[in-house]
Every structure is written in structure tokens, then in C-alpha cells.
Amino acid sequence: MQDPEYTSVDREILDGFGLQTVDDPEGFLKVDEQSIVLSIAPNVPVKHIIADIARPAVVIWFHVEEKGTVMLDPNSSRIWKMMKEYDEERLKPDGGWFKDVRVYIRKTESESPFKGITR
Fold it and tell me: CA–CA separation, 101 vs 83, rounded Å?
């Protein structure tokens, strides 16, 4: 787990649950196809970094849409293309910060958008 704001107390608590914490950029380098990535209002372009590294099993971040607001983690055609590999689930919060957050779950091979197309 990586968060620049983790304190020694945070790290101790997470360690007690068997969760390893790492420093930047080591967390990005550990992302693979079995990872779950949670990124809410980052101050770096997490979506682009992840798109360059791997296709995590699950990503949780703000809704990816073509018309986006200007932010530090913007959407782009590269991100939209990546997200076609995922099913989108909407959270049901009562507004606030999480109203635009989505859970994206990578599609399995049997659910591929190319299913039924022969080579």
C-alpha cells in the first residue's frame, strides 16, 4: 500500500493487518494484474501511470468519461481505451466526494469484447 500521507502509526496499524506499506514510487512499480488500485483525488496522474504499467484486477477512481473536468489525473483517449477492458460499477453514496467514484473490474477472457470473433 502506498500513500504519501501515511504516518508511522498508520504503517503500524496496516502492518498489524498484514498489509505492507511502501514509499513512492515503489507502490506503482508493484502494480500488476492481481492488484486493486484505489485513487481518489490524487496529486499525480495515477490513471496514466497505471495505464502504462499494467491492467489491475480492480481500479477504484473517479468516473472515466469523455467530457471531463480539468484535474491532476485527467482522462484521455488512452484511458478510455483501457477502460473498455473493464466493467463499471457505480457506488451508491449520498453525494459528497464519492458520488462520482466508480469501481472498475477487469473483464475476464470469456467476457472479452472480442468474444465470438474468429481469427
Answer: 14
